[in-house]
Design a protein that fits this description.
single chain; alpha/beta; Rossmann fold; pyruvate-formate lyase- activating enzyme; seven-stranded parallel β-sheet; 18 helices; 17 strands; globular
């Protein structure tokens, strides 16, 4: 069967992200004998025109559309992507049947399938079930009995089954180098699944709580292919938490160092699992920036948000970075259950003490079905059972609902290393464009020190 794979993501803020999930489907579909074409809409100036031209030239029987995110999860400047994806699917359905999937779709599959008006949906990981779905479509059979597969007009679906062997991305049909050129990096995933219990997080819902590790040899082969085959010099490990299990992360880093891979990289790190030996192994393997998912500087808020670490862990993890003179950032979430003016100021105070390269702060927390935060929001009347969560809804603690934006903005603007995207503090589209003029690979926040010495002023 001729299958067109479409990456619907067009977001460039703060960087364009390579469609790693869609690339994981290529190998299994090609192995089943299907003829494939890829259309990545991220860099298309006229996506509808490009899609129409590809449909006309390739004439697929089936279009597989990947939905990475449904909105930018940023308050108050929230942008939904769903209407644009619906337009893409409408164009595809004029000439082919359409399957929609991806992490964004899997958050609310019934609602999104109905909104997008696609023919089929795949919830969760698609490497194994999608070839079976395509086979049944080709036979004219009903695929409603497949785990994780939704059929347009049907009521329900069987729960998805996690894959045991995580596929390696097949990037040969994609323009990988463009992501480094425009976004400063490519991406690699080393594992799936999250055993932690952050109250807002969707990773356990999307990937399950059981952690499944990729073979280190497969990860090394993937990195080598990026370096030698695509000219990539910087990667970001997109794992929910790179450094857990710590022993696996250290083994991977020591193998990377032994292989002398010409690569620098960064990753998202849990402060509780950062022994000095692991950080040293990371640096020896090419790591030049660390991102901590800290969320708050308040002990109360760390407990309320379901974090697996303490303020003492955050202090120690930061100390290790300062001693080794490696750039590091803390990500903060303001507005969770129990947030007060005092807990907000605790976060500012701790960050002042730790002196990270950058602090990236978000105000309000996006509510997704199935999370503990969703249940809290229902119990407190923030939303009700008929609230349409396709429209972005955010939890903001009642104690700071009226003053949070002003308080965070007024405090953040005093600090040159703070970035608050939703409130456009020290960041804007114009400033991002200016930052991209610097020859930087990796996270843009690494430039905060250089910008502090430049003439570029925060907004």
């Amino acid at each position: 069967m001729k299958i067109l794979l479409v990456s619907a993501n067009r977001e460039h803020y703060p960087y364009p992200v390579f469609p790693i999930g869609l690339s994981c489907l290529v190998a299994s579909l090609a192995a089943a004998g299907h003829e494939l074409s890829v259309l990545d809409l991220c860099f298309e100036p006229g996506p509808e025109t490009a899609l129409g031209e590809r449909l006309a030239s390739f004439s697929p029987a089936l279009a597989v559309v990947s939905l990475r995110n449904i909105d930018n999860v940023t308050w108050p400047g929230c942008r939904s992507y769903l209407s644009g994806v619906r337009d893409v699917i409408s164009i595809c359905r004029s000439l082919a049947r359409v399957v929609v999937g991806g992490s964004g779709f899997s958050l609310m599959p019934r609602e999104i399938l109905a909104y997008l008006d696609a023919d089929y949906g795949v919830v969760g990981e698609g490497e194994e079930v999608l070839p079976r779905l395509v086979e049944l479509i080709g036979q004219g059979a009903c695929p409603s009995g497949l785990p994780g597969v939704l059929v347009r007009g049907a009521d329900g679906f069987l729960p998805p089954l996690p894959v045991e062997r995580i596929a390696s991305p097949e990037r040969s049909l994609f323009d990988v180098s463009r992501y480094q050129h425009h976004g400063g990096m490519a991406n690699v995933q080393t594992k799936r699944g999250c055993p932690f219990a952050c109250i807002y997080c969707t990773y356990p819902l999307l990937e399950g709580r059981r952690m499944r590790l990729r073979p280190i040899s497969a990860i090394i082969a993937e990195i080598r292919a990026l370096v030698e085959g695509h000219g990539i010099s910087y990667i970001y490990f997109v794992d929910d938490i790179f450094n857990y299990p710590a022993a696996f992360a250290e083994q991977l880093c020591r193998t990377m160092a032994a292989e002398h891979l010409a690569i620098n990289w960064s990753a998202f790190i849990n402060p509780a699992f950062m022994p000095p030996g692991l950080l040293d192994a990371m640096l020896a393997a090419g790591c030049d920036a660390v991102e901590y998912g800290t969320d708050s500087g308040s002990p109360l808020m760390l407990r309320n948000l379901g974090k697996s670490f303490t303020v003492a862990d955050v202090r120690e993890a930061s100390r290790l970075c300062r001693e080794r003179r490696v750039d590091f950032a803390h990500y903060i979430l303001f507005g969770g259950p129990g947030e007060t003016r005092e807990t907000i100021l605790e976060s500012f105070s701790l960050m002042d003490e730790l002196e990270p390269t950058a602090v990236i702060a978000m105000t309000g927390i996006r509510i997704f079905p199935g999370t503990p935060l969703h249940r809290t929001a229902l119990a407190e009347g923030v939303i009700d059972s008929v609230t349409d969560l396709l429209e972005p809804a955010f939890y903001i603690s009642p104690a700071v609902r009226d003053e949070m934006a002003g308080l965070v903005a007024s405090e953040a603007i005093k600090r040159r290393n703070w970035v608050v995207p939703g409130l456009e503090v020290n960041i804007s589209d114009a400033m991002l464009e200016a930052m991209r003029m610097f020859p930087v690979k990796g996270p843009l926040w690494k430039l905060m020190k250089r910008l502090a010495r430049s003439r570029i002023k925060p907004l």
